[in-house]
């Protein structure tokens, strides 16, 4: 039983890391209706920038700030060069533009900082911690803690500030938001930059775990089932979805994997998401679309 | 001036129903066919056949398969490579299990198996729409890749999962030479294109477009959504399956799951974005673009930037150029190269006058 609990808790903590990536998606989808496939590349770009600066001898906080500024710059350029020209296009076009974007961002990141694997040490020992008879990874707990903090900050931003109010207005109805004088384009830059921040945090945590390398951009594929289960428009959903995916993935790998000769974590979340979708076509917390002609 | 419709009237329904109604179009098509079948096999060299023409043809076919599903029926898919893999492995396995099976028949059978798999993963499309559907197709992608790598039965117990394709014998002739493989590919690809070009003009094709434009409205006017969507998945997967068999048998010469990973799915998607969604001609244009771009880029950088650019950067540069092109196309010409071609034709019609 305690083995089961350990697997479950380990999975839940890993799930928090999935949620982090998924939250970046949700922010952008809510504010601009863009299904941002480039979120994974943004994670890679942010983490790679951070690590490369750190390796050139800059202090931790300065690298963090510069990486954050580079994400802001990316958001500005993106709005000016891409999003502005794609207003009122069908969502599928926007999605495919972010596919192209992910190529550009990955290419630029690797051209600037090289393609080798960088180790990243955040100064947290990955020693197991014993809590009530269960062995838990200290690093996972730290990751979950920072994710929790980030979510708290985001919810403060969304619920307690004027910017957050505007963002919620934009998410609710873009036309109405425009009509009351909210600058849509500024909001887009803002939300892409915030998604960049979330990406940076996710990139640091994932990078410390796996090393900062090209495969970081593939975690977008891990985040997709999370989004589907949680719904595209709910941050809470992204967290719950992440937990569900993390836990069930680990449990399936441990209990179901040996029966199927292993390696099932690549597709299992997708099949799980599919099952969820068949029951709830808009995810657990997504807005149910009303269809009319 | 090149195109003159004047004087070309349809006097019979048969004439009215033709895919190409102008004699200039038909003449151009016959000329192209004569070129492709009669001239190219004799003047082309091995590099042209193996590195350009065969992948171009196979990718056009794959693009066609996805275009029917995404461009015509409006169902977004990132699992094209999975259906290609199913086709390739099914063809191979059938060749192995039934030794006397004619090659072309095993291609068709591979397509049929792929179609069946496509229908299974298409079933959720009845309930799930838009981006949520990506999950189903991605599930197909990862599941099929995993299945083919993990279970040795599919690759006949071969450890690496890489198998050499059987010899290309059709009716006693060996099509193993580069020119022969090109001819074989061409003769499989063309009939499928003819089929698809007529399919999209049929009532089924019109139903697909209605579903793409608004499936609720389509259901309200009495289009059977279930049948329409599943047929889109089945026919698209069939074509992708045949394309997969060709990719493995005539292009690579080996059957392996890693040739059909997610990046292949993206490649097929880019073909239809660049070529033109909802266009038959666009598949050829997009595939030509995708096949030629890396070659042109490497030649250019080899001559212009030799020594200036480190070898590793070339790949990054290619990626950036590729991404920028995709975004540019979506902004400037969302209907792709096919639309550019149409614009050029419209101008050629009036030339040398402006209006």
Automatic annotation (TrEMBL), chain A:
UniProt keyword terms in alphabetical order: Amino-acid transport, Cell membrane, Membrane, Transmembrane, Transmembrane helix, Transport
Record localization: Cell membrane
GO cellular component, one term: plasma membrane
Position of the signal peptide: none
Membrane topology: Multi-pass membrane protein
InterPro entries registered for this protein in UniProt: ABC_transp_permease, BCAA_transport_permease
Superkingdom, natural source: Bacteria
GO molecular function, one term: transmembrane transporter activity
PANTHER family: ABC TRANSPORTER PERMEASE PROTEIN, BRANCHED-CHAIN AMINO ACID TRANSPORT SYSTEM PERMEASE PROTEIN LIVH
Name under which the protein is recorded: Amino acid/amide ABC transporter membrane protein 1 (HAAT family)
Organism: Aquitalea magnusonii
Lineage: Bacteria, Pseudomonadati, Pseudomonadota, Betaproteobacteria, Neisseriales
UniProtKB/TrEMBL annotation, chain B:
Pfam family for this entry, one: BPD_transp_2
UniProt main location, coarse: membrane
GO MF, any single term: branched-chain amino acid transmembrane transporter activity
Transmembrane residue ranges: 27-43, 49-69, 76-94, 100-123, 130-148, 182-200, 230-252, 264-282, 289-308, 320-341
Name of the featured protein: Branched-chain amino acid transport system permease protein
InterPro entries: ABC_transp_permease, LivM-like
Species annotation: Aquitalea magnusonii
Transmembrane helix keyword on record: yes
């Amino acid at each position: 039983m305690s083995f089961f609990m350990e697997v479950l808790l380990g999975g839940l903590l890993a799930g928090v890391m999935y949620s982090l990536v998924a939250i970046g998606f949700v922010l952008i989808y809510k504010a601009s209706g863009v299904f941002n496939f480039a979120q994974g590349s943004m994670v890679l770009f942010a983490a790679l920038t951070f690590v490369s600066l750190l390796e050139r001898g800059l202090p931790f906080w300065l690298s963090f700030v510069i990486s954050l500024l580079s994400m802001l710059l990316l958001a500005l350029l993106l709005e000016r060069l891409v999003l502005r020209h794609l207003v009122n296009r069908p969502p599928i076009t926007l999605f495919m533009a972010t596919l192209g974007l992910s190529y550009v961002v990955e290419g630029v990141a690797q051209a600037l900082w090289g393609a080798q694997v960088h180790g990243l040490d955040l100064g947290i020992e990955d020693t197991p911690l014993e809590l009530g008879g269960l062995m838990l990874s200290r690093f996972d707990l730290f990751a979950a803690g920072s994710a929790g903090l980030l979510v708290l900050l985001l919810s403060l931003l969304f619920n307690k500030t004027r910017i957050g109010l505007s963002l919620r207005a934009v998410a609710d109805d873009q036309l109405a938001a425009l009509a009351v004088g909210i600058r849509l384009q500024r909001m887009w830059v803002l939300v892409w930059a915030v998604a960049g921040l979330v990406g940076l945090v996710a990139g640091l945590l994932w990078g410390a775990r796996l090393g900062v390398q090209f495969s970081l951009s593939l975690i977008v594929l891990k985040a997709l089932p999370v989004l589907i289960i949680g719904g595209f428009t709910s941050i809470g959903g992204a967290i719950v979805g992440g937990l569900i995916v993390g836990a069930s993935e680990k449990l399936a790998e441990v209990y179901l994997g040996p029966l199927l000769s292993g390696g099932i974590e690549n597709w299992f979340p997708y099949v799980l998401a599919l099952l969820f979708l068949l029951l709830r076509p808009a995810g657990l917390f997504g807005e149910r679309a009303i269809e009319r002609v | 001036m090149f195109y003159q419709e004047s004087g070309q009237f349809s006097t019979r329904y048969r004439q009215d129903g033709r895919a190409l109604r102008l004699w200039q179009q038909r003449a151009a098509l016959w000329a192209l066919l004569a070129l492709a079948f009669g001239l190219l096999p004799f003047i082309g060299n091995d590099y042209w056949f193996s590195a350009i023409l065969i992948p171009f043809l196979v990718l056009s076919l794959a693009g066609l398969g996805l275009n029917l599903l995404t461009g015509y029926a409006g169902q977004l898919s990132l699992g094209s490579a999975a259906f290609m893999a199913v086709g390739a492995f099914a063809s191979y396995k059938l060749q192995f299990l039934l030794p006397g099976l004619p090659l072309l028949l095993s291609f068709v059978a591979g397509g049929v198996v792929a179609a069946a798999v496509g229908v299974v993963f298409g079933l959720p499309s009845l309930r799930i729409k838009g981006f949520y559907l990506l999950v189903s197709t991605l599930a197909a992608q990862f599941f099929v890749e995993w299945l083919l790598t993990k279970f040795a039965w599919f690759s006949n117990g071969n450890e690496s999962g890489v198998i050499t394709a059987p010899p290309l014998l059709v009716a006693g002739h060996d099509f193993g030479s580069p020119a022969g493989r090109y001819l074989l590919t061409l003769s499989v690809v063309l009939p499928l294109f003819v089929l698809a070009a007529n399919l999209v003009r049929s009532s089924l094709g019109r139903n697909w477009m209605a579903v793409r434009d608004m499936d609720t409205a389509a259901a309200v006017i009495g289009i059977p959504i279930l049948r329409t969507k599943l047929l889109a998945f089945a026919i698209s997967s069939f074509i992708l399956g045949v394309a997969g068999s060709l990719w493995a048998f005539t292009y690579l010469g080996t059957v392996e799951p890693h040739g059909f990973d997610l990046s292949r799915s993206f490649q097929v998607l880019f073909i239809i974005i660049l070529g033109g969604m909802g266009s038959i001609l666009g598949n050829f244009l997009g595939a030509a673009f995708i096949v030629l771009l890396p070659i042109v880029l490497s030649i250019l950088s080899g001559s212009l930037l030799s020594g200036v650019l480190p070898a590793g950067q070339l790949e990054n540069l290619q990626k950036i150029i590729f991404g920028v092109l995709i975004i540019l196309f979506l902004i400037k010409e969302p209907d792709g190269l096919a639309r550019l071609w149409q614009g050029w034709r419209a101008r050629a019609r009036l030339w040398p006058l402006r209006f």
